[in-house]
Amino acid sequence: MSPPSPLYIAVCGPGVASPEEEALAEEVGRRVARAGAVLVCGGMTGVMDAAAQGAEAEDGVSIGILPGPDRTGASPHLTYSLPTGMAEGRNVLVARAADALVAVAGEFGTLSEIAFALKIGVPVVGLRTWELHRKGRLAEVFPTAETPEEAVSMALDLASARGNTR
Amino acid sequence: MSPPSPLYIAVCGPGVASPEEEALAEEVGRRVARAGAVLVCGGMTGVMDAAAQGAEAEDGVSIGILPGPDRTGASPHLTYSLPTGMAEGRNVLVARAADALVAVAGEFGTLSEIAFALKIGVPVVGLRTWELHRKGRLAEVFPTAETPEEAVSMALDLASARGNTR
Amino acid sequence: MSPPSPLYIAVCGPGVASPEEEALAEEVGRRVARAGAVLVCGGMTGVMDAAAQGAEAEDGVSIGILPGPDRTGASPHLTYSLPTGMAEGRNVLVARAADALVAVAGEFGTLSEIAFALKIGVPVVGLRTWELHRKGRLAEVFPTAETPEEAVSMALDLASARGNTR
Amino acid sequence: MSPPSPLYIAVCGPGVASPEEEALAEEVGRRVARAGAVLVCGGMTGVMDAAAQGAEAEDGVSIGILPGPDRTGASPHLTYSLPTGMAEGRNVLVARAADALVAVAGEFGTLSEIAFALKIGVPVVGLRTWELHRKGRLAEVFPTAETPEEAVSMALDLASARGNTR
User: Fold this and answer.
1) CB distance A2–D65 less than 8 Å?
2) Is the CB of residue C70 less than 8 Å away from at least one CB of chain A?
3) What is the mean pLDDT of each run of 10 residues along chain D (166 residues)?
4) A with D: how many residue pairs have Cβ under 8 Å apart?
5) Searching chain A, which residue's CA lies closest to the CA of residue D75?
6) Sign, CA torsion C140/C145/C151/C153
7) pLDDT digits (tens, 9 = 90+) for C7-46
8) What angle do CA B44, B46, B47 make, to 5 degrees?
9) % helix / strand / coil in chain D, to the nearest 5?
10) D137 CA to chain A: closest CA distance, Å?
11) From A86, which residue of chain C is nearest by alpha-carbon distance?
12) How many contacts does B have with C, using Cβ atoms within 8 A?
């Protein structure tokens, strides 16, 4: 009999991050791993690397979906990595692979991952990231967390409620 | 000798739009066509269809980059259409093809196109679309226009300033 | 009323081609254009450039689906070009956009376009290109032509028989 | 310190396979797993499922890169799976992720994976698959094996010789 399928939690954020943002991402990665979920990320530097490092520290599994044609520049802390050759277009794949997505801080790439996830129905949790407004007021299209602990807890709940599709 | 390469202006917006939003999109399409630029869009309904209709009315050229595996459901007003089979992943291609992008209203798909364009350095002009905030205040990452006329004028200026890469 | 939708004929072949192969590709491009069909290609050098040149000489329309993130290196003979940032992954899009595909000579990239077209049901015509064998004998999975005239005639017939999906 | 990066071996073949082909694929999967390499495949039925089953039987790791927008229809024997929403376009990603690729039998999709791998420099080993001819004679563009044991041994050697890029 096959084991039950794991949950996949994407962790998104900038490739160039502050020490504080990296600390948040590492703690998110640790908590994803401790919950037995698979961490998915863009696989490069900054928030991506810090999240993979957190997962590694807890003996968890991380999968990096890389922008380049090969593994050059990938985080050394990933368990597995998949080059795509699609440049920033790989952001779509990060959102696709996730049962829920945690956005940590973030620049435009992170915004694209948030937007894609919302477009295709993958729940998003924000941690010090973009706030989306329309017509002059906050559009509450995804919940926000105050801490890594809260962010991962919310993401796991949303992912479980949505149901795993495998 | 080859003719000078045209400018490409992407027009992005929701597939289900209000009559007012469609009127804005049609006028954007008209003005892109009158300027001799090529209109690029997602090629389906709503804002995409209205923009293509505007371009057609002015004998302009529009190219629809379609989400499906074939041309089913494409706007009948497109000059050319290209199925991709990439579903919402084709949003990346709409942004890539553009020298500047006009976002008209918009849901999550439009937000993903705005985000990708900003990520890869394609200028964006907003027309009654998302407002992006960070840390509690407006992040002025793209200019906004009040009218279709102003939006297209700004987009053409930004596209020209950026320089065409062909 | 919208004009009837055009047929799209992809012309595929190597980026580094012999003068003879380029002459074949140019003649294919001429005949696609004369038939009023839209020529789709990978938009770069060699067979792609020669085909676009042929279409241009007959006042036809060609669309290049480019591998790079911008229009650098695109054939100057294209009517329209669309950067994808997907590297060789854009070969899938060339096949997707076609109602029929003509393969002129060809290396591995061309083989990938033939294979994708066959996989998704787009008719292929070969002109001095790969021959596919299985179990020691020729697998007649696509027809071959002896001349550009014959190749384009066969491709147009196959495309029309298949029916345009827009 | 991070553990050494694994080798990735793609196993490609038809989604509808004969019992004999599935037996070959399962044995390929077993031997990839026993060598400690990560098995990458398209993640669906037939050869893909059989290969994943082989890897699972040896406590190995398999990653399925799925064509659909979610995990529906994925092999239950995969360790990890990543939906792409790119339909057959995901074949490009299977080739990209591999340090070497074993093609078992195969229809057009498999041919596209062989072609892409060759295009981007990923070594291919054939096991009762397509034979490629040009100008009336066999083009020996990839080696062939007689047994799963030989195929995996050759693939591992080629992957190691190429050098892992992480």
Assistant:
1) no
2) no
3) 78 98 98 98 98 98 98 97 97 98 97 98 98 95 98 97 65
4) 71
5) A166
6) negative
7) 999 999 999 999 999 999 999 999 999 999 999 999 999 9
8) 95
9) 40, 20, 40
10) 32
11) C86
12) 73
CA distance C161 to chain B (A): 16
Q: Which of B82, B84, B91, B122 to mutate to test the interface with C (most CBs of C within 10 A)?
A: B82
DSSP H or E stretch at residue D158: helix D148-162
pLDDT of residue C4: 64
Q: Phi and psi of C87, rounded to 5°? A: 55, -140
Determine the pLDDT at residue B150: 98
* Residue-wise DSSP of D34-51: HTTPEEEE--SSTHHHHH
Nearest to A111 among B91, B115, B128 (CB): B115
Q: Quote the DSSP letter at residue D88.
A: G
Evaluate whether D103 touches D127 at the Cβ level (below 8 Å): yes
Residues near A55 by beta carbon (within 8 Å), at least 6 away in sequence: A29, A30, A32, A33, A39, A61, A62, A77, A79
Q: Are B27 and B149 in contact (CB under 8 A)?
A: yes
Q: In which band, very low, low, confident or very high, does the pLDDT at B162 lie, cut at 50, 70 and 90?
A: confident
Distance of CA A155 to the CA centre of its chain: 10
Nearest CA in chain A to D7: A80
Residue C4 contacts B where some CB pair is shorter than 8 Å? no
How remote is the C-alpha of A65 from its chain's centroid? Answer: 11
b/e map of A52-67 (b: 16 or more CB within 10 Å)?
Answer: bbbbbeeebbbbbbbb
C48 contacts: CB under 8 Å, gap ≥ 6? C11, C12, C13, C15, C25, C41, C42, C64, C75
Name the region of D105 (left: φ>0; alpha: ψ -120 to 50; beta: rest).
left
What value does the CA radius of gyration of chain B take, rounded to a whole number of Å? Answer: 14
pTM: predicted TM-score of the whole model, two decimal places = 0.96
Say how far apart CA A80 and CA D159 lie, in whole Å: 16
Which residue type does C82 have? L
Distance from CA of A30 to the nearest CA of B (A): 25
Integer Cα distance of B26 and C159 in angstroms: 32
Question: Max CA-CA distance within chain A?
Answer: 54
**Side-chain-facing half-sphere of D89: CA atoms under 13 Å:** 34
- Of the CA atoms within 13 Å of residue D45, those in its CB half-sphere come to 7
Cross-chain residue pair C109–D115, CB shorter than 8 Å = yes
Query: Which among A56, A55, A45 is positioned nearest to A22, based on CA atoms?
Result: A45
B81/C2 touch (CB, cutoff 8 Å), yes or no: no
**Cβ–Cβ of B61/C82 closer than 8 Å?**
no
Of D111, D128, D141, the CB nearest to C115: D111
Query: Which of A65, A70, A86, A93 to mutate to probe the C interface, most C CBs <10 Å?
Result: A86
Would you list the DSSP string of chain B? Answer: -PPPPPPEEEEE--SS--HHHHHHHHHHHHHHHHTTPEEEE--SSTHHHHHHHHHHHTT--EEEEESSSSSTT--TT-SEEEE-S-GGGHHHHHHHH-SEEEEES--HHHHHHHHHHHHHT--EEEES--EEEETTEE---S-B-SSHHHHHHHHHHHHHHH----
User: What DSSP character marks residue A5?
Assistant: P
CB contact, 8 Å: B36 with chain D?
Answer: no
Say if A88 is an interface residue toward chain B (CB within 8 Å): yes
Cα three-residue angle A15-A19-A25, rounded to 5 degrees: 65
